[in-house]
Amino acid sequence: MAQKKSIVFFHPDLGIGGAERLVIDAAVGLQARGHKVTIFTSHCDPGHCFDEARDGTLDVRVRGNSLIPSTIFGRFAILCAILRQLHLVCIIALWNYELDHLRPTHFFVDQLSAAVPLLRFLYTNVGVLFYCHFPDQLLAQKGEGALAVLKKGYRVPFNAIEGWSTGSSNAIVVNSNFTGSVAKRVFPALSKRDLKVVYPCVNTSNATQLQRKPMWAGRKLVLSINRFEKKKDVALAVKAFARLDASVRKSAILVIAGGYDQRMPENVSTHQELQQLADSFKLSHETYKSLPDPSVVSNTTSVLFLLSVPDALKQSLLASADLLVYTPQNEHFGIVPLEAMLAQVPVLAANEGGPLETVIEGETGWLRDIRKPEEWTAVMSSVLASSNPAELRSIGENGRKRVQAEFSKEQMALRLDHSLDQITNPPKQPSAIPDWLLMTIVVVGITIGLALLSTWLLFVGLDLVKPVEEASPQYNAGETITEKIIAVTTQMVRNEL
Fold this sequence. Notes:
By secondary structure, the protein is of the alpha/beta class.
């Protein structure tokens, strides 16, 4: 019998999204194999996370959320993310020694690799596995014109840190062959590394022959599930749906559901832009944060926006859906197509990136060019106006069988366990850091530290904020020191104006 492990996970923000779903599934799967699992995160809102993160299934601990905000005026997200992760590790490793008490045998780090070298320095006998969803520098928004040049310069040190810290991991696994090829291209130092593929999974334990349960009688459902982010290109679903013949569209509804966080400006702006797009096509629409009763939706509504749907509602939508449309360009993997196929829903996805490894053309769905909305409209029309329901049922059943065979939680946990076994006795030191990068980190760190310290001392001296030990209940409820400083600064500027 394999030796039991104490695996500590580090994830930046345990909200609702594909990366978060994978972390939860990985943790549950490894726990089911008899290992001790603990998850540390800088943020986890009980009202905006997966059930396993709040119902006691997993040991989730929120730390390092008292100093650095997630953004500063909606900017500097990567800088704040790195500082928050380093703060988290320092708190649990050097301040309260919480990490020592867990006696970790392995660290599982994903999405953000900045703390990997620190973990390897502090815990030389603990193997570090980094799960690469996709290089962060390729996910960052590029901007336009002069802003693009500024952002490119701003990203230089962070891209270097990402490449070095990722390479410092004892082992690296990726979520698809596509991601592996991109990672080796973006990070030359990884070109000769063995990047094993561990596909994300869906829970197949309760998968049975699905009975269709229409949420709206007499109306067919086209479903899109994605975070409200521009890069997900959900606008393509709206454009393709708007192109349908009026007679076909009248008897259908497009439901756009997914992760939405009011704290994230992009989520808010993307939702607004999608509403404006629907208006431009004269498509009536409604928005709900929850949908306790589907009957509240008007029969004339063409597009329904659902913000941060709970799992139970998502399952009801899948049980009612006639087609799942998955629109992201070059998505590194994409868990939603698997969830749809498990629910026997045919999938229409982009013919690039991760869906090429999950969706089989003509057997479990269709792959189409995202630059040609008319191709997506044609598939929608053929499904919504289909005269051969048996063919659609066959496609749905093929999808269910494929997911059960290739993408189960047990398979993912087994592959992760094997990868962890290979780093049980890791080398003692992380890869050497280049001198220029070390100097950059030191200079940036000292500058940020002095700026925060001087600002804090200034405001304490002016009696504009209280010291931490005298913090108000409002501060303890979640407002970071930096956020309070920003708020006070903003108010002072307004007063001057």
